[in-house]
């Protein structure tokens, strides 16, 4: 039986996949940068690269949908290279503006790290441009890799070079609190699902407090994602969380605006 809704979804997916390569090349698809801030002062301490694409027909395409289309069309490597290139441009701008205490983070899935040469791309790319590895950060999801040892080896190379490794969307995948003590992870980002409504949920507060306390004992930074209300910001601060990102502080912005924000903050601090 013909299903009109399924047909529309198929047509939409095919349209997105068909237009993906052109969007990457023309830069209508690419990373914007969301500030990461200190909870107490709101001072910017870094940026996360987030994919943005306003499709001429379908409007805003979500990052997960973009990544799925890139995998289906064999363009994931090109997309990753594009994001990394913009991260390098931002880092270079920060270095020239004497903002060396800020970091720029990029998302990578364990399976992408496992299958490709992202570690070589990152290390060679930073070295070729003379950029400090300590200003770059890799965020990996809790997706379970097929070959954990290979992923750990690659993360080890990146970590040894000075690149920070963060676990993104913590609480949504396969990781456990106990596993953190034996990993390369130096930062944990608590998924926004546990942050929204935090002030009203005793269970979420207990979970977040447990992660924060354990992170502190292991020397791991714990950060909150998706902070949207002042009530949640205050609750997180009381629980001991020190850094966060979310619409309460700022939405993602084009590279030039992110650099301008960092430069203005640096100028005020002088």
Automatic annotation (TrEMBL):
EAL domain residues: 13-266
GO molecular function terms listed in the Swiss-Prot or TrEMBL record: cyclic-guanylate-specific phosphodiesterase activity
Pfam families reported for this sequence: EAL
InterPro entries: Cyclic-di-GMP_PDE-like, EAL_dom, EAL_sf
Name this protein carries in UniProt: Diguanylate cyclase/phosphodiesterase
Species classification: Bacteria, Pseudomonadati, Pseudomonadota, Alphaproteobacteria, Hyphomicrobiales
